[in-house]
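Page 42, continued from yesterday. The earlier attempt failed because a stray header line got pasted into the input along with the sequence. Redoing it now with the clean sequence only.
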Amino acid sequence: MKSISYKNIKYHRVIFLSRAYVVKMNKKVIIIGAGNGGFATAGDLGLRGFEVSLFELPEFEDNIKPFYSNPRLNVTGVYTGEITLTKVTTDIAEALADVKTVIIATNALAHKTVAEIILPHLREDQIVFIMPGNAGSLLFADAARKRGIDIKATLAETITLPYGCRKTGATSVNISRLLGRQGLAALPSNKNEMVLNLFNEMYPESFLLKNVLEIAISNSNLILHPTPTLLSAARIENSQGEFYLYKEAFTPAVLEVTDEMDREVVRVKKALGMKTLSHSEIFAKRYDVADFRTFITEVIGPKGNKGPFEVSSRYITEDTPVGLSLLSALGRYAGIPTPTFDASIQFAGLMNKTNYWKTGMTMETLGLADLSLPELQKYLTTGIHP
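This time it went through. C-alpha cells are written below.
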C-alpha cells in the first residue's frame, strides 16, 4: 500500500481517520458492486488497512475486467492513495468463501438481483451491510421466504453511502466528500448492538436507529433529491449542463416544501412506533450542525457536485420508486396522509412517463402488507415473520 495523503477533512471524520487507522489489519471485507459506491468503499477501507475484495454481477463484468491484470485501485479526493485488491471476481461462492463482513454497495434497484445471487451462500458467521439500505434487508428476507431459504447471516442497513464519489476511470475513483456519521440498524433489531460494534470498527461514531424501516425512511435522499430536482426542472433543462442542485435548488420557497416533507416523515415514524427524529435532527447528529438548512448552506452547498442534468436522473428514477414510494406506502399503511410526497411521486411520473405508483416500493413488495402493526414491529425486532 502506498502512502496516504489526507486533505480537507472536516467534521467528525478527523476522528474517523485517526481512530480507524489502527483497526486490526487482518480484517477481510467483500464489496458487492463495482460502481461508484463500490469503488469508493473499497478504496477507503483499503487505505485504512482492511483486506478488500470486489465482486461484480456477471452481466457487469466489464466493470472489473481491468483489475484482472492489475488489481490496483487509485483513490483521489479527500484523501489519496492506491490499494491492491485481494480478490476480484464474478463468482459469488468464491467471493464469500473466507470473509465475515459483506458490504453491498449497489444501487437500490439492484437489491433484488443481488439477493437472488447471494442468499444461498450466506453463512451464520457473516454480517451483510447494505449501504445504503433503502429497505434492502426486507427485500432480501422476502426473497428468502419465497425460496424457502433460512437466512443464517445477520442483515444490516445504513442510512446512506458514506461518500460523495465518482469513478474517474476504469481503476480509479474520486471521493469528493465524506457524508457524516452513519445511522444503522439490523434485521432483526435485537442484534443492533452487536452490529453497531462491528460497524464502528469500519466507521467510528456511527449510531443506531430503532429498526431497518426507520433507517430506510431516514435516508437523506428522500428530501435532498427528487423534489428539489423536480422543482428545478425548467432550470435543469435550460442549463446546458451548468446546474448545481445543492447550490441552486434550495431556495426559501423550496425549503418550505422540504420542511413539510420532513414533518410528514415524523408523523409516519410516530404512527409506526419509531423514534421521531426528523431529517433535520438527523443531519444535525451526523454533521454537528444546527439543522437541515445549516447543512445545506454550510456543508453540502459549497461542495456539491454539478448536476443532475435531466429529470431522468437517478435522483428521480431511483429515489422516487424506492424512497418516496416507501414513505408514501408506510403512510397509507399507518393511516397518515403524505400529500407532499404523493405530489412528488405524481409529478416525477409525469415528467418521466413512468407510473411510479405501480413500479415503486410498497408494503406488498416487501412482504409486509398482511401484517398488523404489532406483528410488523415484532418481525422487525425478532426477524420472525408471522
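Notes: The domain at 5-212 is CATH 3.40.50.720 (Rossmann fold).
Reminder to self: strip header lines before submitting.
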